[in-house]
Design goal:
Elements lengths: L6 E4 L5 H12 L3 E6 L3 H13 L3 E6 L5 H15 L4 E4 L15 H29 L2 E6 L12 H21 L4 E8 L12 H9 L9 H12 L10 E4 L7
Parallel strand pairs: 1-2, 1-4, 2-3, 4-5, 5-6, 6-7
Helix pairs in contact: 1-2, 1-7, 3-4, 4-5
This protein binds NADP nicotinamide-adenine-dinucleotide phosphate.
């Protein structure tokens, strides 16, 4: 058990990478707040899977772009399990993949402001107690597209680059306080968010990678576990691609 006595919050944990991460952190001993925005049934199913496996979890609804809902979510997890010492900022905003000249600012803004705003408010609510306890680990889910680019992905690339800078800056401020902040950057991962890509295209994209396949949500969850565990206790401000060799830095 790598996370015995830990209390974790995973945002966007009803599906995809967040769901796999919540299940894995719980399997390693953490009590987990499982956040969702709209899909209560999917969130409840993750909580049920965790509890049926002998773990501890609480379902918490919140739109992470709304500060009041973020605070309510954190209060619920705290009252259920105690102080949160592990946070995975995973929830990402959808955006239409299209050429820049056809892009609308409203779509760009929802992605950019939504993800940066949620990181700001989540960390503002979580960090003071981490500083007080001199203990905390925050992981932000970025993307390999923060370091390179793809057609139609400008809002995603721009947003995730901003989050990478947020992580480095926060890690610098919080290092002396015993709080670690790191980036996990998935490559193409098989989730609902990528279901618009035809299967044969995904297979071809996987075959172009050194590891000859795209990622599963469990691949990303494993890297998050590694990063939040005490074995990574001297790692902060880092950027770790989890991309089957698709990005080497
Ligand atoms: N999949 C990839 O290829 C890939 C690659 C690189 C990076 N990423 C990043 O990995 C993260 C997870 O992606 P995914 O592919 O696992 O997504 P996904 O399968 O589409 O799941 C999205 C999750 O985020 C939640 N969510 C969406 N908006 C939210 C909001 N405003 N407040 C709270 N929760 C919200 C959803 O909740 P509901 O179920 O309630 O809607 C759901 O749990 C994102 O940050 C994404 O940018 C993904």
């Amino acid at each position: 058990m790598l996370l015995q006595d830990r209390v974790a919050l995973v945002t966007g944990a009803s599906r995809g990478i967040g769901a796999a991460t919540a299940r894995l952190l719980a399997a390693q001993g953490a009590a987990v707040g499982v956040n969702y925005a709209n899909n209560r049934e999917a969130g409840q199913s993750v909580v049920d899977q965790i509890t049926e496996a002998g773990g501890r979890a609480v379902l918490v609804q919140a739109d992470v772009t709304v500060p009041e809902q973020v605070q309510q979510m954190i209060d619920t997890v705290r009252s259920e399990f105690g102080e949160i010492d592990t946070a995975v900022l995973n929830a990402g905003m959808n955006f239409p993949v299209k050429p820049f000249v056809e892009s609308q600012w409203a779509d760009f803004e929802r992605k950019l402001v939504g993800e940066v705003k949620s990181a700001f408010h989540l960390c503002q609510a979580l960090v003071p107690s981490m500083i007080q306890n001199h203990k905390g680990s925050i992981v932000v889910i970025s993307s390999t597209l923060s370091r390179h680019s793809d057609m139609g992905f400008i809002p995603h690339c721009t947003t995730k680059s901003g989050l990478d800078a947020f992580v480095r800056s926060l890690a610098t401020e919080l290092g002396p306080e015993g709080v670690r902040v790191n980036t996990i950057a998935p490559g193409l991962t098989d989730t609902d968010a990528t279901s618009f890509i035809p299967e044969d295209v995904k297979t071809a994209m996987g075959n172009a990678l050194p590891m000859r396949r795209i990622a599963t949500p469990d691949d990303i969850a494993g890297a998050v576990l590694m990063m939040v565990s005490d074995y990574a206790g001297y790692v902060t401000g880092s950027y770790t691609p989890v991309a089957g060799g698709g990005l080497m830095i």
